[in-house]
Design a protein that fits this description.
The protein is α/β, with parallel strands linked by helices and 431 residues long. Helices cover 30% and strands 23% of the residues. The strands form 3 sheets. Strands 1, 2, 3, 4, 5, 16, 17, 18 and 19 form a 9-stranded mixed sheet that branches. An 8-stranded parallel sheet has the order 6-7-8-9-10-13-14-15. The protein folds into 2 domains: 107 residues, Urease, subunit C, domain 1; 308 residues, TIM Barrel. 58% of the residues are buried. It starts with a strand and ends with a strand. The structure holds (4S)-2,6-dioxohexahydropyrimidine-4-carboxylic acid (DOR). (4S)-2,6-dioxohexahydropyrimidine-4-carboxylic acid (DOR) binds next to loops.
């Protein structure tokens, strides 16, 4: 087992409110010591001066595309992209082919992850068969196989009776239900946020109220069933407001927001770039402001990427025909550093939203950096500037709105179970 000394970094552990310059010694897969001027004792030394040393990031929303769409991504390439982004755990969505609605698929994903992925992979199982919103999946068998939550993400369960049952059964297995809140009857063929931008583009609009209507319904159903509702990729001011009020009333609701919904408005779509097409769509400046406020005041617990790879031949078509989604694992940290630079979040608060809080949403024993704890860690340089070229990244896909952009902030090392799995100069090192 490797021994590593991470030297001279700013150690950030939100759970203990620790923020100090220190060395971190790792032995036997665990954090053996945190303190000033630790002796290397023959361990490999990783220089972290100018860097933050944090719990490994936890992504609550990744599409790994395996099984079935390995031309877009697979568990190996998605796992490598995650490691390069400072993530040590990813929660992967069920809209694979076949859908992860059966324990055999959950088993397959976990098996491949053990062999192929440098980071931990936690599968989300579908809430309904084939994501069709009609017949519920066998939740207890799926949890036994290793599913950590239930979601029809990519689709919305429109039948409120089915949704109620999903919430009821989720309580029996004590797992969250992650909802993709877009009322299909309001979205219809909308492809960009409904408003001045959709009018200028001459494209069908997807109204903000399509999200709010659904969040309101699911909050009510979660309340009557006592279930844990987790709202995926919140994008509107109305949804933030509804969630804030529900939390104040004591409902068990958690929520995530993506780097793109925190930093890009619908104006980014004005050039008809299909890499800015995403579901839910990029919204107005007011919505972005509300999402940022929600993240700052704790209404939104976590930053989650919604890493959604699509192949070049699928994306390089006219805007209406392109599938929604963008990749985000490798750029997430740099993009959300914007909230630290603006003074809205302290470094410790940002790390809470990237690591500690998402781990607690799904009850993972991760997201900490403490003596005796498992050494799943990220070493990130908050200033390092780089030009993002998806062709040089680890994802198989290229669909990023940040392609070619100069970014500041970059993971330089990622450790999983005490092993260095990624180093910015050496690439991905295992498996
Ligand atoms: O933009 C999106 N793409 N949103 C989703 O919810 C699904 C995802 C995908 O699977 O491509």
């Amino acid at each position: 087992m490797s021994r590593i000394l991470i030297r001279g970094g700013r150690v950030l552990d939100p759970a203990a409110e620790r923020d100090e310059l220190a060395d971190v010694r790792i032995e036997g897969g665990h954090v053996a010591a945190v303190g000033a001027q630790l002796d290397a004792q023959g361990a490999e030394v990783l220089d972290a001066s100018g860097c933050w040393v944090t719990p490994g990031f936890v992504d609550l929303h990744t599409h790994l595309r395996e099984p079935g769409q390995e031309y877009k991504e697979d568990i190996a390439s998605g796992g490598r992209a995650a490691a390069a982004g400072g993530f040590t755990s990813v929660v992967c969505m069920a809209n694979t082919q076949p859908v992860n609605d059966d324990p055999s698929v959950t088993d397959y994903i976990l098996d491949r992850a053990r062999q192929d992925s440098p980071v931990h992979v936690h599968p989300v199982a579908a809430a309904t068969r084939r994501l069709e919103g009609g017949v519920m999946t066998e939740m207890s068998a799926l949890v036994e196989a290793g599913a950590v939550a239930f979601s029809d993400d990519g689709h919305t369960i429109m039948d409120s009776g089915v949704m109620r049952r999903v919430f009821e059964y989720s309580r029996l297995v004590a797992r969250p239900v992650i909802v993709h809140a877009e009322d299909r009857t309001l979205v219809r063929d909308g492809v960009v946020n409904e408003g001045p931008v959709s009018t200028r583009l001459g494209l069908p609009g997807n109204p903000a109220v399509a999200e709010a209507v659904h969040v309101a319904r699911d909050l009510m159903l979660a309340e009557v069933t006592g279930a844990h509702l987790h709202v995926a990729h919140v994008s509107t001011a109305e949804a933030v407001d509804l969630i804030r009020r529900a939390r104040n009333r004591g409902l068990h609701v958690t929520a995530e927001v993506t780097p793109h919904h925190l930093t890009l408005t619908d104006e980014a779509t004005l050039g008809y770039d299909p890499n800015t097409k995403v579901a839910p769509p990029l919204r107005s400046a007011e919505d972005v402001r509300a999402c940022r406020e929600g993240l700052v005041d704790g209404t939104l617990d976590a930053i989650a990427t919604d890493h959604a790879p699509h192949a070049v031949h699928e994306k390089e078509v006219e805007f209406t025909a392109a599938p929604p989604g963008l990749i985000g694992l490798e750029t997430a940290f740099a993009v959300v550093m914007d909230l630290v630079r603006s003074g809205e979040l302290t470094p410790l608060q940002l790390v809470a939203r990237l690591a500690t809080n998402p781990a607690s949403v799904i009850g993972l024993g991760a997201g900490r950096l403490e003596e005796g704890g498992v050494a799943d860690l990220a070493v990130v340089d908050p200033e390092r500037s780089w030009t993002y070229d998806p062709a040089k990244g680890f994802s198989k896909s290229r669909n990023s709105p940040w392609a070619g952009r100069r970014l500041a902030g970059r993971p330089v090392g990622t450790l999983v179970g005490g092993r260095l799995v990624y180093h910015v100069d050496r690439g991905v090192l295992v498996p």
